[in-house]
Amino acid sequence: MGGSILGTTKILGVMGFPVSHSLSPVMHNAAIASMGFDYVYVPFPIPVEDLPAAIAGLKAIQSVQGFNLTIPHKVEVIPLLDEVLPIAKAVGAVNTVKRVGDRWVGTNTDVAGFLSPLKQLNCDWGNSPAVILGSGGAAKAVVAACLELGCPVIHVVGRDSKKMKKFHGAMTSQLHDYNLRVHPWTSIPHLLEVAGIVINATPIGMASDPNTPISEAEMDLLPDQAIAYDLIYTPRPTKFLQIAAARGLKAIDGLEMLINQGAIGLEFWLDQPVPIEIMRQALITHLG
Ligand code: NAP
Predict the structure, then answer these.
(1) Residue nearest atom 2 of ligand 1, based on CA coordinates
(2) Within 13 Å and on the Cβ side, how many CA atoms surround 161?
(3) What is the pLDDT of residues 34-56, one digit of tens each?
(4) Alpha helices in 63-153, H assignment, sequence order
(5) What is the distance between the alpha carbons of residues 13 and 195, in angstroms, rounded to a whole number?
(6) Cα 232 to ligand 1 centroid, rounded to whole Å
(7) Of 33, 36, 82, whose CA–CA distance to 55 is shortest?
(8) 246-272 pLDDT, tens per residue?
(9) Using an 8 Å Cβ cutoff, are 139 and 132 in contact?
């Protein structure tokens, strides 16, 4: 928040259910305060069945300039918007919405957020098969990102064959001209032997489930140049990344994805560059 709430204050926020765990208010309000903008970013807890009413209601409140969406609303929001930008159509999920006149325009900043720490690396992505563990909402953004990187093949691993088939069908209809394959969990060792990057897009390793999606023995199968990327940002590092670092691999956690998807979203709302370092410091301080 830039200062006092005034009659002119504009509103941004995050819709989710639950939403109390969201770190977005921390980083967005830190950035808004440092820019001296007359905005505030607030949580909007909205049950699934109330999403249509919430989207219509917020449109009527003229000071609401935009909002983020988190679980469980990223897909269900799509038919409620006036326009969905191509990147969000490709992923099949919207995480950021902006008021443009009297229209809600949705985009997806998770793809660019995921790519941010990878773009700083000097990698031969054309020779880097990707292995994605999990097939939920975040995995969809990761598939689109790996496609943008130019990975020659994208392997997605899941535990439920029906869901995997559905995932493959949905992504195939949204993205074109790419090599996506889905596999059962038992295929992991065989896939890791030739992987250039392995991404944990499951909740395994969060504080509530402090495990690892792949074992130390499986991590040993990865080529020496492989990258281990965990979308989880608490704890830092996860057991998955601890094992990867001990094995000498490049290990990346989910904090930069979180910060960058937020910064790109704030730029989309404010139409100007935002202080990403202030957003990073606010989150690091908050997370201790
Ligand atoms: P989601 O939609 O609920 O998907 C979770 C996926 O993990 C599903 O495919 C699920 O499989 C699988 N899974 C869950 N528990 C599993 C287990 N014990 N064994 C094997 N597979 C399991 O969640 P999401 O939104 O994709 O998020 C996934 C993770 O990414 C979360 O930890 C989230 O916090 C993180 N994330 C981080 C960022 C960031 O900015 N850093 C952004 C988005 C998400 P089933 O379908 O079979 O249940």
Answers:
(1) 136
(2) 3
(3) 999 999 999 999 999 999 999 99
(4) 86-91, 110-119, 137-149
(5) 38
(6) 9
(7) 82
(8) 999 999 999 999 999 999 999 999 999
(9) yes
Annotated binding residues: 22-24, 70, 95, 110, 134-138, 231, 233, 254, 261
Bridge partners, residue 198, by sequence: 131, 228
* This model's pTM is above 0.85: yes
Residue 263 near residue 108 (C-beta atoms within 8 A): no
Nearest alpha carbon, ligand 1 atom 36: 231
Confidence of residue 288 (pLDDT cuts 50, 70, 90): confident
3-state helix, strand, coil split of the chain in percent (to 5) is 40, 20, 40
Structure tokens at 173: 């209809």
Cα–Cα distance for residue pair 78/59, rounded to 1 Å: 15
Structure tokens at 161: 């064959």
Per-residue pLDDT reduced to its tens digit, 1-17 = 556 899 999 999 999 99
Beta partners for residue 92, in sequence order: none
Q: Would you state the pLDDT for residue 177?
A: 59
Give bridge partners of residue 45 from the DSSP assignment. Answer: 16
Q: Mark residue 237 as left, alpha or beta (left: phi above 0; alpha: psi -120 to 50; beta: remaining).
A: beta
Q: Strand (E) positions, 177-255?
A: 180-184, 197-200, 227-230, 250-252
* SS3 at position 194: coil
CB 53 within 8 A of CB 83: no
Q: What is the largest CA-CA distance in the chain?
A: 61
Q: In the Cβ-directed half-sphere of 255, how many Cα atoms lie within 13 Å?
A: 23
